[in-house]
Amino acid sequence: MGMDLKEKIKQLASEYFAEVQEIRHYLHQHPELSMQEHQTAKFIMDKLDSFGISYQPGIAKTGIVAIIHGMHGGEQVIALRADMDALPIKEANDVPYKSLNTGVMHACGHDVHMASLLGTAKILQNTREHWGGTVKLIFQPSEESYPGGASLMIGEGVLENPSAAAIFGQHVAPQIEAGKVGIRSGMYMASTDEVYLTVKGKGGHAATPHLTIDPVLIASHIVVALQQIVSRNNTPWIPTVLSFGRIIGDGRMNVIPDTVTLDGTFRSFDENWRVEAHKKIREIAMGVAVSMGGNCEVEIKEGYPFLKNDEHLSNHFREHASDYLGKENIIELDLAMTAEDFAFYSQKIPACFYRLGTGNKAKGITSNVHTPTFNIDEKALETAMGLMAWVAVRELSN
Ligand code: NI
């Protein structure tokens, strides 16, 4: 333990770097969409076999849980999670490991998360005479698609047998330079819900509006009226967003349509307020429509809850990461209105989700996630696999 193990982990991270880089290239070349991660799962299992690590496959279809026991005994169990799915984006990077599955791309760095976790697994497996307790490595499908692989795997008991006392996850961050990580204690990422409105009126000639019930006008009033949910109904210190990005009223210059549809997103940081806000959205949208002679159907699809980083655990992470990377390489993060299905774990057990710096301004590696030119400075893989192994063994010794 102590200095010796940290140096050993750093040495192994450096030693395994080329292999983990190759793993990432393979995964990047063979991206698969949410809940279709079959080849990906097979590849991960082959690697785990080659490392001599036992695992259970087929959790939530393509999910895998691997287990490594430290040789010093101990009951403590720590879980580490990587997500597996790619996005329906056509890669624009001209790299030797460009996606071979045209139209599908690891544009959110989940290839990096998997490769890194496999590197961590190999480090933990080959240092297990130096630590005690158990590490669960969770390879999780379908982060990008509702209801999210996390909730499915939790439903299938991934946090039990043995029960994990805490869970860590990481996500690539091109805004942060490789070699650094970002962390935030407490509320970190927003809950997210999809809001679908269908405003029903009565179409007709635009020159005779008095003979119609104009759903375009009704929809316009609804968009404005709904903003009072954020500005008047919400407690000012709960960050909340309600945005509509799609409004379709498919009439013509001189034709008022029968219906208008609106698609939006609601994001916030409080589960009670979230329920209350859904109710308000329904009441206001329907109330405005009815008062104008029309009607409105409201459909709200619940997405992920908000992600809360356990104060205690994230303080520990800060200490372990400072110890491993140096204090100057730890960045304090702002709140994010984006969402992550890691939030489901954070609603169950103490959780810590941190950002792995993968950008490199000098090398021009700055493209954001979910873009066709997203890529990483691969030096981040060495940081990632070693840091996660170090955090796990330090946390197990607490
Ligand atoms: Ni992602």
Notes on the protein architecture:
With 398 residues, the chain is α/β, with parallel strands linked by helices. It contains nine helices and 16 strands. The chain is 35% helix and 25% strand. The strands form four sheets. It has an eight-stranded mixed beta sheet, sandwiched between helices. A four-stranded antiparallel beta sheet has the order 10-12-8-13, covered by helices on one side. Helix 3 links the parallel strand 3 (77-83) and strand 4. Helix 5 (215-233) packs antiparallel against helix 6. The radius of gyration is 24 Å and the shape is elongated. The mean pLDDT is 97. The protein binds nickel (II) ion (NI). Nickel (II) ion binds at residues 108, 110, 143, 171.
Throw out a few tags for this protein.
four-stranded antiparallel β-sheet; binds nickel (II) ion; Aminopeptidase; 398 residues; alpha/beta; eight-stranded mixed β-sheet; 2 domains; Alpha-Beta Plaits
